[in-house]
Automatic annotation (TrEMBL):
Entries under InterPro entries matching the protein: FlK, FlK-like_dom, HotDog_dom_sf
Source organism: Pontibacter aydingkolensis
Fluoroacetyl-CoA-specific thioesterase-like domain boundaries: 13-116
A Pfam cross-reference name: FlK
Domain of life: Bacteria
Protein's name according to its UniProt entry: Fluoroacetyl-CoA-specific thioesterase-like domain-containing protein
Amino acid sequence: MQPGDTRTYIKRVTAGDFARFDDGLVHAVCSTFSLAQAAEWAGRLFVLEMKAEDEEGIGTCLEINHKSPAFEGESITIVATLEKYDGYEVICSYKATVGDRIVAEGQTGQKILKKEKLARILAPKKV
């Protein structure tokens, strides 16, 4: 894999993707949170191909510039472009579109670590 390679994920918007908080429905369009999750998955498609059996990816950064709504039933195409890969860090830019309309764009970052090391890092600390 090299910079410039792309991976594509297509997400169909459902009511489960709407913007909701504890006080109820904010609006009936795809939320920024849901878009962020889809963008991370598009970047993870690279990680799935790169990691060894004893490794796993962990998110390190996420930038999302939400530009227009995506409505229930629409399909969002997220194209992740590999920007950097140095053996353990995977940085991707992405663009999310519905047809010709840009819904969001930004960048994601993940690191590939040995599962053993990741388990140590994520273990609860004794207080």
